[in-house]
Amino acid sequence: MGKERVTVIDIAHAAGVSKSTVSLVLQASPLVNEATRAKVNAVIRELGYVYNRGAANLRQSNAKSKIIGIVVNDLTNSFFAELAVGVDMVVQSAGYVQFLSNSGESVDRQREVIASMREHGISGLILSPARGTDAADLKPLVASGIPVVNVVRQVAGAKVSSLVSDNFAGMRDAVRHLAGLGHHRIAFLGGFPDTAVFNERMQGYRDALADMDLAVHDELVVSSAPSRAGGVAAIERALMLRERPTAAVCFNDAVAFGVCDGLRAHRLDPGEDFAVIGFDDVIEAQTAVPALTTVSVDPQGMGRRAAQLLLKQINAGKADAEAIVGSVRLVVRQSCGSATDKRERLSLL
Amino acid sequence: MGKERVTVIDIAHAAGVSKSTVSLVLQASPLVNEATRAKVNAVIRELGYVYNRGAANLRQSNAKSKIIGIVVNDLTNSFFAELAVGVDMVVQSAGYVQFLSNSGESVDRQREVIASMREHGISGLILSPARGTDAADLKPLVASGIPVVNVVRQVAGAKVSSLVSDNFAGMRDAVRHLAGLGHHRIAFLGGFPDTAVFNERMQGYRDALADMDLAVHDELVVSSAPSRAGGVAAIERALMLRERPTAAVCFNDAVAFGVCDGLRAHRLDPGEDFAVIGFDDVIEAQTAVPALTTVSVDPQGMGRRAAQLLLKQINAGKADAEAIVGSVRLVVRQSCGSATDKRERLSLL
DNA sequence: TTAGATAATTGGAACGTTCCAATTTTGTCA
DNA sequence: TGACAAAATTGGAACGTTCCAATTATCTAA
Fold it and tell me: Can you name the CATH fold of B8-51?
């Protein structure tokens, strides 16, 4: 099959023009005559030419490579998959192409993939940092003038833009809602305590309890892996307490689903016998039974915003870091058995 | 900040050697003296040099670019996310880097991303084709000698390797299992009938029913989107039948979870009042309550195998298409209320 | 010593593109 | 028709690397 690569020179030859003209056509320059353009394009199609972006990049090293990198810390978590999809949407429509990698929560792997991306000449990076990422890891990137946008998690001391959700307010609203429904013993389930996100949400939890004149009971805080399995384990522990909680806010939706599973294993009906609130609003939160009350973060929207922010910085040339805190909204569904909810359900009948 | 790019020549200059020597060092050639290598490496680190893979590729156009592309049809489906993670594992350890894109089930988008990948000089492609992909879409790729491995779905007439799971046997085993437990009315829920995967599974369903001397009732086949929401809708319809089914095999795990949700909404207990079997064995299948009985496909393993197959073809140079059908295994858990299962549960107490 | 082998190093051409300055073609108007 | 402007085209240099053939430095053994 086609062993030899077809180059711009072959095209020029076949079309009876110079390589410069072909180049102009490729860039859709207005300088070239309409008839010539048509002929060149015809030859291009005929010979099956494929543009060599590597060579082009080489020449215009100052310009941008039209690749943006994105690395997430856990692709198997649908939150991040959706985030990536959101990024892809805007990146694509801006004529860029996405280079997606998964660090799997390993800083070493993260370092590797970022290095590899640099070698390929990305013009910007969207990073959901692995746990334990140090500002020094990002230093060389920003030093070489490549815009970076951190999402979901901050990296302390890194001079890059960031887009995180309002963890504090989200959790505060969730707890207030439960307290408003009359719950006194509200557990905080799931998540690793050594992360900034955990601490922000925890702060919101404590703050809301204080607000509502409820005591903070340390045994009601049960940390675990931020996964479905972690949620099962956490509720398991919480139900072994002498004084059981009657409601829980969860570190994220995955934990919340696990909690629902665990409740059922104990013959408790989530939403009826026990109120559960999640965090993230992943896509299944709406269709699960009971539909999950959760703090909506809109991962796709977050991805879109991050991409827009990055593109803005790429186009501006200068990259002055801005820290954006995305607002967040409690979506009340069935899993917390609210009055509002029952009314809604009735009205649907 | 570092405006000027550091090149191999700068390194050569600073280290007092020629650019050729620096190049040799970069390639870890045994030809270069140990002392020189050390010095050059020191300078490289000191000046913050980053390798320009584009330029390298340009020179050694015959050789491989160390990029492999992977495009999936729905990244938000965790099956594909895990597949991608599996691919990443082996691709990474072979020194390649992964270029992941999402076609979102659109052939146009798929065409775009594949074109873009070609321009970037991928040395191989793993493709989970969007619905409606035509053999002609892959033609130019294979014509230019780039190995392609199709996963999950075949593309009729395309002369590329493929790796699909044994849909027929998997579904057949699932139905046999249910029939063996005494179920007579077994529904087939979810999936779009215009796909090859659907038809293979359907064939397994019919075959097993015939095997077990059970009648095929067309109303027990309810298609829907292959998603959680689709599963809810499908069981909803199935429960409206005069003669209800007592068990269901589902197109995939997402549908199965939706079916469980739908059953609960009708106050039916999945695993007790109604048997449910999924397909795929996504990660949540184990931790869900009830744990899902399902046909295990091991998406990560499939990704790994696909990547190995692709690398083999890349290294071999020649790409003779081979079609691999991955074997598949019924994993019995709680959701089908089997006798085995109850025994297991007891033994755990 | 020195011839011969081996180990290290090196300059220049090449990869496929874009940019620049220069040239040729076409168009306009007196 | 000539003079000038505008439009279209063009050759060559450059981007950062690798490869090749050629050169120089170092070692070995008689």
Answer: 434 Repressor (Amino-terminal Domain) (1.10.260)
